[in-house]
Amino acid sequence: MTILWRPTGPVELELVRELRWRAWPPRLPEQPIFYPVLNEDYAVRIARDWNVRHDGAGFVTRFEVVTEFLERYPVRQAGGETILELWVPAEELAEFNRHIIGEIEVVREFR
Questions:
Q1: Is 30 left (phi over 0), alpha (psi -120 to 50) or beta?
Q2: Cys bridge to 63: 3, 9, 25, 104, which one at CB 3.0-4.6 A?
Q3: pTM confidence score
């Protein structure tokens, strides 16, 4: 299994809660990819510096996914050396969700 992180705002977090902490909600039409990140520090920076400014709150979530399944998604460097993401096409999110192990958990909160 691989641990992934996801910075999220309050609206998306409520949708995750409605899905019983077991899946990510479908993407909106203007969101062609779902991007979990590979380290907590990067997730914290987005949640704290972007989500709080745009949504009033930011949350860092942590979840585990079957490693072999993730091999289909190349690691993308979105900036500096530690700014690493996976890009999951929106149409593959349901399949991605089926490979989540356990629950999605909130590990940090910023307001």
A1: alpha
A2: 104
A3: 0.94
